[in-house]
Input
Amino acid sequence: MPFRDELRHQFAAESESDAVGRIRFYAAGLNILGGIFALALVFLMIGGRLSWAAAPGVVLLIAGGALGVVVQLTKDVIAGRQRLGWAWACTVLGILEIVVVANLVS
Output
């Protein structure tokens, strides 16, 4: 089987290989770590070390972490890939918002 056809076969939702499934699983795990990081940021906001203007970014990070958990528990490949996209979008936008707020406030 040519290389291109082999890649299409492994990445197809109907015949996703175990290696590709593990990549999706670990990518969702990174979103979960972002959610845990956001919980730590909540304590920094309560303590006054981080502005409350970062709260929308923290909420986005927590939402990304929650979606990461859902992705890891989802058996449906197509739904898992869609939710992983949303999880990554939430995580990246949350980090960007927090970085912008931290730089503007300091």
In short: Residues 71 and 83 are 6 Å apart (CA to CA). The radius of gyration is 17 Å. The mean pLDDT is 91.
